[in-house]
Amino acid sequence: MSVNGYQNILQGPLQTYLELSQQIGGDVATQAKLVNAAFQAQFRYIQLAATRSKPSQAEEMQLLAPTSEQISAIQQFREKNRASTFFNHLSAISESIPALGWVAVAPTPAPYVKEMNDAGQFYSNRVLKDWKEKDKKHGEWCRAWVQLLSDLQAYVKQYHTTGLVWSGKGAGAPPPPPPGGMPPPPPVLPDVDFSNMSLDDRSALFAEINQGECITSSLRKVTPDMQTHKNPHLRQGPAPFKAAGGTGPAKPLPQPGAGAFTDKPPVFARDGKKWLIEYQKGNANLVVENADMNNVVYMFRCRDSALTVKGKVNGVVLDSCTKCAVVFDNLVSSIEFVNCQSVQMQVLGKVPTVSIDKTDGCQIYLSPESLNVEIVSSKSSEMNVLVPKGNGDYAEHPIPEQFKTVLNNRGAGLTTTPVESTG
């Protein structure tokens, strides 16, 4: 049944995805061939699991090698074609293809497939946005890929709920456990080094033990005035430790990043040298005008909004914003992104510094006057710098997220260099 269920995936949603990939053509069609090879390799692995017992860990790694190599080939193909017109297509597949690793996940492989499917949604949404008005076939392609992984998740949940099922047949099957289970191991004795004790010490030790009942003669007697049940005032000592919150339900931990949108009244006000723009939702017409050079524009917990800053100000800060964009003329110091998700900026004049911290998804559109900008990033991902070419188009450059550190001078220090993908 497990093999037949996987065949249904190969002949159904996988074929739909492959056909749409061929219709789009180019790098999408080339990558689809690698995806097909990965699914076929996994199908052979599932067929093997239906005919034998679970292998040893070393043998299991060898058997998984063909699938692992195909997954790696898909991801490398994406890295080698960053300049491709279909880069978002390639990324959607590359980010979610690790879902095929469910065969090595236990005891809940189905949620792992969903997690990988969600990982590719960022780029799938980009494809839907960029090709919505150009060619609807690309939208069908996105839905076919998401449906393929959704069907894979349902298959895993039905046939391999707690992990890949092996038939238990053939050589190498583990022996059944003895009836009643194995007895618990004996308690571990304390690690005492008697060899370091002097003869007198050991003699005193055994003399204490050999006293028998007399060993309690030296203990202190509890008199009636020491008994707490007869003397309530003795019970007024410090209370025993209690965990914070008592026995009630534990409060959920705060979510990092932008978090859930808080439905508070939107704010757009000037407070001295600071412009406060808070809790704006779905507002694409936010404009700051008549600002002074020493002013700072602070945008906090806004969602699906766009801000335009006219004139020259000291700096701009986006804090805990989601799917927001900012366009400005000139900045004296810097623009900062903190705890944001899917944000964009465009400078029309000059900006000295761009700071990105704990942000996932940041697009930086530069002007010809800002090509000497300094970009400082930490704990962030999916960052891209778009440099004008002069013909109205932009060249996209990803900011490295991975780094290599080596020891130098025989351990005297460290040298860290970014790991950049080669196209």
What attributes characterize this protein structure?
423 residues, alpha/beta, Serine Threonine Protein Phosphatase 5, Tetratricopeptide repeat, Pectate Lyase C-like, 2 domains, 12-stranded mixed beta sheet, two-stranded antiparallel ribbon, 32% helix, globular
Annotate the secondary structure layout.
Elements lengths: L1 H10 L1 H12 L1 H24 L7 H24 L6 H10 L12 H11 L1 H11 L5 H23 L39 H11 L57 E5 L2 E5 L7 E3 L7 E5 L5 E14 L5 E14 L2 E7 L5 E5 L2 E6 L8 E5 L2 E8 L5 E5 L4 E6 L4 E6 L5
Parallel strand pairs: 2-4, 3-5, 4-5, 5-6, 6-7, 6-8, 7-9, 8-10, 9-11
Antiparallel strand pairs: 1-2, 11-12, 13-14
Helix pairs in contact: 1-2, 1-3, 1-8, 2-3, 2-8, 3-4, 4-5, 5-7, 6-8, 7-8
Describe this structure in words.
It is a single chain. The chain is of the alpha/beta class and 423 residues long. It has two domains: 2-159, Serine Threonine Protein Phosphatase 5, Tetratricopeptide repeat (Alpha Horseshoe), CATH 1.25.40.330; 267-418, 3 Solenoid (Pectate Lyase C-like), CATH 2.160.20. Helix content is 32%, strand content 22%. The protein contains nine helices and 14 strands. Strands 1, 2, 3, 4, 5, 6, 7, 8, 9, 10, 11 and 12 form a twelve-stranded mixed β-sheet that branches. It has a two-stranded antiparallel sheet with strand order 13-14. α1 (2-11) runs antiparallel to α3 (26-49) and α7 runs antiparallel to α8 (137-159). The chain is globular and about 75 Å long. The two termini are 43 Å apart. 23% of the residues are buried.
